[in-house]
Write a structure and sequence with these properties.
- Helix content is 16%, strand content 43%.
- The protein is built from three helices and ten strands, in the order E-H-E-E-E-E-E-E-H-E-E-H-E.
């Protein structure tokens, strides 16, 4: 069983510090840390400084007052979905590390990720959102390029797709990227 949690707040909490949100949300899942990340999240900015934080987790968060709903395995039984993905599209450098992709590389990136993730893109919209700021563990500010992919996907390998849904897509997941939002098409 997985869970989706919705947290509504204002920018006074952590505002645009995406890694601050990661540290805060980590406290909602007490106990020994598992080898793999046990949650994904994204911050949606609303009107007048409001925020909506969506958290996808393999455990139920240990916080009262958050709106949490279970996601059963049947949710991934559909063959077609509307999707949204906020990602930090990067590629590996030959010298090590990652580099942000250019605008003309975004489609190839999401197409490759879809093939690896057990689905095909029926259509996709790409919206470059700009840079998203954070302050790292050492207190140094930085940013990641945020790109929103949306459209319709068709599942071609249910096992790979389920694994992709649970683990997210791309890099910078600890900074609010990679969570695949889905709405079944019936």
């Amino acid at each position: 069983m997985n869970y989706i949690t919705k947290i509504r707040t204002n920018t006074g909490s952590f505002g645009v510090d995406s890694y601050g949100w990661h540290r805060f949300l980590s406290e909602a899942f007490p106990g020994p840390q598992e080898p793999k990340r046990n949650f994904l999240y994204r911050v949606n900015f609303g009107p007048m400084g409001s925020l909506e934080v969506l958290v996808f987790s393999i455990k139920q968060p240990n916080v009262l007052g958050w709106e949490t709903k279970p996601i059963g395995p049947s949710y991934l039984a559909y063959s077609k979905y509307y999707f949204k993905l906020r990602a930090n599209p990067t590629s590996m450098r030959s010298s090590g590390g990652r580099r942000a992709l250019n605008d003309d590389e975004f489609y190839d990136w999401i197409d490759r990720k879809s093939t690896e993730g057990g689905f095909q893109l029926e259509n996709v919209n790409i919206n470059k959102l700009g840079h998203q700021g954070f302050i790292n563990k050492k207190g140094v500010p930085g940013s990641h390029l945020a790109v929103e992919f949306s459209g319709v996907l068709v599942v071609v390998d249910k096992n790979k797709f389920s694994e992709t849904f649970n683990s997210g897509i791309g890099s910078a997941k600890g900074y609010g990227f990679g969570m695949l939002l889905l709405k079944p098409i019936q």
